[in-house]
Amino acid sequence: MHDRSTPFEATIKWTRKETRDTFTCAIRISNRDIQRGYRFVPGQFNMLYVPGIGEAPISMSSSPLDRDIMHTVRIAGDVTTALSLLGAGEVIGIRGPFGRGWPIEEAEDLDLLIVAGGLGIAPLRSVARHFMKTHSPKKKTAHPRRMLLYGAKTPKDIVFRDEFPRFRDIFDVFLSVDRADPEEYWRGETGLVTQLFDRLSLDPVRTIVFMCGPEIMMQTSVRELILREVPEEKIFVSMERNMNCGMGICGHCFFGPKFVCKDGPVFRFSEISGLMGIKEL
Ligand SMILES: Cc1cc2nc3c(=O)[nH]c(=O)nc-3n(C[C@H](O)[C@H](O)[C@H](O)COP(=O)(O)OP(=O)(O)OC[C@H]3O[C@@H](n4cnc5c(N)ncnc54)[C@H](O)[C@@H]3O)c2cc1C
Q: In the prediction, which pLDDT does 4 show?
């Protein structure tokens, strides 16, 4: 196993703009031995290090079966701005993979419901691409069912917009935006992502949920699911906190008694229900 406390080099293979403030970059680890030993599961993250600037935790948005490792990044501060200015052939540092990812194996035989808000789709695109690479296109009546709900602020903020037609091979896809200007010709739903739950007929006993997005969205979505009798043990949420070491040492990312970097970022909701404030909603 490689040393995850020191960054190793990776070369940027390509970058692509997703929305006005978000881009995807594909990287390849330079050292062949590290490349061979490097394995991640969807939902884990890397610390991306831009020389001379600093590092930031960013989830993998590619499938582990993709040739390159992809990260989809919103420009927020120094590191992400510097990263957005780099192009193919330039070298960055990475440490990882870190954290606990989505329980893909547990989802295999169950109905999988993905709920994403905004850039929360990034670690869930990793799941979607993984299923696209490992499953044949869906059959109309077959169990297990796979469903994907995604909400963005406006049509222009939909990340991976061009990929949704392909996601439909495996998933029933439902999109909504908070608001759309008439000139955007939006023909999908308008409103919060939670209203898309009314479009689903869930079988709570055989459903597993993977969710990532703004915390308020996750709180209201979890509440909707509990009202529909989906057990808390079958709901998984990905949390974000400021973090530094990524290895459960520095304590920057404490979430109650847990470290987001080591015990998460993906948590079974039943483990953290007391920390997420659902009961007060
Ligand atoms: C496990 C994990 C996975 C992540 N995955 C992604 C991803 O796939 N794509 C992506 O774009 N971003 C992701 N992030 C968020 C990203 O790490 C932060 O936006 C990061 O701080 C950006 O670094 P920066 O130097 O550009 O901005 P900074 O200067 O660090 O931050 C800019 C602003 O964002 C605030 N901030 C920083 N980190 C967080 C945080 N975790 N939560 C809320 N506010 C924060 C800061 O306080 C500051 O106001 C993830 C974070 C975590 C913890």
A: 78
Atom of ligand 1 at shortest range from CA of 74: 11
Question: How far, in Å, is the centroid of ligand 1 from the Cα of 76?
Answer: 7
DSSP 8-class letter at 172: E
Pocket flag, ligand 1, residue 72 (CB < 6 Å) = yes
Instruction: Quickly list DSSP for 189-254.
Output: EES-GGGGGGG----GGGEEEEEES-HHHHHHHHHHHHHTT--GGGEEEE-----SSSSSSS-TTE
**Domain range list for the chain:** 8-98, 104-276
Q: Whose CA is nearest to atom 9 of ligand 1?
A: 73
Kindly give the number of the ligand 1 atom that is closest to the alpha carbon of 264.
1
Contact 261, 101 (CB under 8 A): no
Could you please state the CATH topology (level 3) that the domain comprising 104-276 is classified under: Rossmann fold (3.40.50)
Ligand 1 atom with least separation from CA of 253: 53
Q: Tell me which of 114-118, 244-248, 266-270 is least confident.
A: 244-248
Q: Residue 19: pLDDT above 90? A: yes
Please give the distance, rounded to the nearest whole angstrom, from the Cα atom of residue 37 to the centre of ligand 1: 27
pTM listed for this prediction: 0.91
Tokens of 11: 């070369």
* Predicted pLDDT of residue 139: 66
Decide whether any atom of ligand 1 lies within 6 Å of the 73 Cβ: yes
| CA end-to-end span of the chain | 44
Architecture per CATH, domain 8-98, reads as Beta Barrel (2.40)
